[in-house]
Amino acid sequence: MAAVAAVVLLLLLAAAGPGRARPDVLREELLLSPLPAGDVAATFQFRTRWDADLQRGAVSHYRLFPKALGRLVAALGVRELHLALTQGFWRTRTWGQPPLQAPAGAELWVWFQPTVTDVDKAWKELSNILSGIFCASLNFIDSTNTVIPTASFKPLGLGNGTDHHLLRYAVLPREVVCTENLTPWKKLLPCGSKAGLAVLLRAERLFHSSYHSQAVHIRPICRDASCLSVSWELRQTLTVVFDSFASGQGKKDWSLFRMFSRTLTDACPLASQSKVYVDISPKNKVMLTDQRRPPAPSVQPLCVALKHLTSISCMARPPTSPPGLMKGSGFLPLSKAAGMSVVVLTALSWLLGGKGQGQSEGLCPAFTVTLRVIFIIHLLSQEKELLEVTPPPVSLYEAVVQGEKRTYAVYDLLSPSLFNTSRSLNVQLKWTRPQDTSELPTPVLHAHRYVSGYGLQTGEISTLVYNTHPYRAFPVILLETVPWYLRLYVHTLTIITKGKENKPSYIHYQPAQDRRRPHLLEMLIQLPANSITKITIQFERALLKWTEYPPDPNHGFYVGSSVLSALVPSIIAMKEVDMEQSPLFTSLFPSSDGSSYFVRLYTEPLLVNLPTPDFSMPYNVICLTCTVVAVCYGSFYNLLTRTFHVEEPSRGRLAKHLANIIRKLRGVPPL
């Protein structure tokens, strides 16, 4: 019997050996990005890929993929599911483009399989089940806040997105995200919050931030390059923005321990990849400590570039005296010992017509004032770095992300050399000098939305869409979802760009029905280069029934964010990468070509006041009515219904008893 058991054990070990491909793989990643305004964004991604066919329902064993979500996908015929719970608003103009943005509140959009006959019933059942899994108010999703977009929210995985009747989209802008939503989200992770990057997910730190967004994305993807088989991908993402200035006691320096009150000690044992990426792009001028700084760059590349402008031969000459700005027909390299202030002062003196040290009398006439200004700019660019990162990374990774070339310091938690010198990893970033706020980059595409007007009868919704690209125009799809109690006047829709009317190439409008469905407005608008497009539409406020008002009606009613989808032109050509091996910052939107990248933005949610009755009047009426009834009607009722009897005052019982005894002895009837 023991021999048989040993043989069976050997067969099982051989079947699960390293030569056999795993049916499911887990990759965990953390991206730390210093934002232009001085804040720090931390984006977690836990990506589980499962080589199984969930639609046939033949799966009975779950290893890494959560069973609750797997059975949900199989039972309701879900093709794609995207759920986001967000607290706060991502400030695109200040923080730049996010890896994956979500609107404030709760957002849910789902693509169903063509085999689903009743999509509305499956949609309602799905929202109720997700409400129980994530402890959210998704059960309030109904026909009054659900729309069917026709141009936006195309499938991100495999599948045909032409039949938009299989798509459902809903937003609950008033949903509040708290710890009870984070706890079930962490329980879906294979290692929970006990190991790996998930140990940093402490609720008391995550919710003490400027922005918090957690999401779940399920989609089918190709199993290999031939795409003959389908795998299922689950992405759990969490983005949080820390105000390092407020939390750091007036300092912008940050570290993993300062942000999360914990450090990394190991990777998740079930993960095949566990990495930490830190954005050290040249825009931040980051210096990696524990490494020798490179010497000052030679001016020879500058000479070569200027050769085409001045038609003179440039070659480096040995300096005769520092700093040796120029001599003869070519530039001289700067002395390494020369300080920055000496170089700048000498360059300024030369610009104003003076003679610097080591400068000869006969200057080349081709070196004009423009050349001198370029040379000074080159000197000023050699200033001290803004940021300092410790410890030194294991490797560097370069990629073109959202049209910009980025450089990332990579810390591989599975590398044995990472924890040789220390038992834990605590990435630290220190600002060596303040950042000039006038140099903050502006995103190519961003938007702003607000409501205007006065009174409680009419108003106007305005959306400003900015295209800051200097020479490229591109189209954008705008999706507006407005509740039914704001009655839109479509004839007042205006689109103005650079003082002229901008007619949309495509427009789809579905009017609302009172207490049944909201307004849906989709437009394809062309944005000229370096322009601001203003979209306005007027509305009228409806008067609700007194039972339809929330408990705090004077707080106002929320209107969901507008959604902008666009292919933004990229200044830097993007190379085609392997999506399976690509890290987090490629996001869910791969680039079809190297000339553009997909961006989905959300504007601010609106808070609109409606005509609200004085709910204190019923209380006053009830109090007054009860008083009148108790005092007046009660008194009359008592007078009309009571019966009165005349009763003589009773005498003493002892005297009466003695008198009856005497009367009885006399034979007289008692009293």
How would you describe what is shown here?
This protein is an alpha+beta fold and 671 residues long. It is built from 13 helices and 29 strands. The chain has an eleven-stranded mixed β-sheet with strand order 5-6-4-3-7-8-2-1-10-16-15, with helices on one face. Helix 10 packs antiparallel against helix 11. The radius of gyration is 37 Å and the shape is elongated. The N and C termini lie far apart (112 Å). About 17% of the residues have low confidence.
Shape: elongated
Number of strands: 29
The gyration radius over C-alpha positions equals 37 Å
Q: Write out the strand line-up for the largest beta sheet, numbering strands in chain order.
A: 5-6-4-3-7-8-2-1-10-16-15
Q: For the report, how would you describe the main beta sheet? A: 11 strands, mixed
Can you give the helix content as a percent range? Answer: 10-25%
**Which parts are unreliable, with pLDDT below 50 for 5 consecutive residues or more?**
6-21, 290-384
| Number of helical elements | 13
Mean pLDDT score? 78
Strand content: 25-35%
Cα distance, first to last residue? 112 Å
Structural class: alpha+beta
Keywords:
671 residues; alpha+beta; eleven-stranded mixed β-sheet; five-stranded antiparallel β-sheet; 13 helices; 30% strand
Please describe the topology of this protein.
Elements: H1 2-15, E1 24-34, E2 40-50, H2 67-76, E3 78-87, H3 92-95, E4 105-112, H4 119-134, E5 146-147, E6 167-172, H5 179-187, H6 203-206, E7 211-222, E8 230-242, H7 244-247, E9 254-255, H8 256-260, E10 273-279, E11 286-288, H9 300-310, E12 326-327, E13 330-331, H10 340-351, H11 369-380, E14 387-390, E15 395-401, E16 404-412, E17 428-431, E18 445-452, E19 458-467, E20 474-482, E21 486-497, E22 500-501, E23 506-510, E24 519-527, E25 531-541, E26 557-559, E27 563-569, E28 596-602, E29 606-608, H12 616-641, H13 653-666
Parallel strand pairs: 1-10, 11-14
Antiparallel strand pairs: 1-2, 2-8, 3-4, 3-7, 4-6, 5-6, 7-8, 9-17, 10-16, 12-13, 14-17, 15-16, 18-19, 19-25, 20-24, 20-27, 21-22, 21-25, 23-24, 26-29, 27-28
